[in-house]
Sequence to fold (89 residues):
Amino acid sequence: MALGAKRSHIFGLILGEGFKLTTTGIAIGIVCTLALTHVLSSMLYEITATDPLTYVLVSSILMVVALLACYVPAWRATRVDPVRTLRSE
Fold:
């Protein structure tokens, strides 16, 4: 913000970075899970190891939780006074 960034840009930047990390983690998790379906199939009851509804629901829940976890730091970052921060350094 000291260099001219708007609060909305800072907020979007932090949420965007969290979104990228979350989607990368979910994608890696899905690939690993699909690669290990033969191991998982013996541990699951009443669903298949490749149940698309389960993948969508779990991924959606993880995405919402991760974005909520990024919301508080993003909100705090927009409330920082740039002059006070520059003086403290």
In short: The mean pLDDT is 86. The helical segments are 7-35, 37-40, 52-78, 82-88.
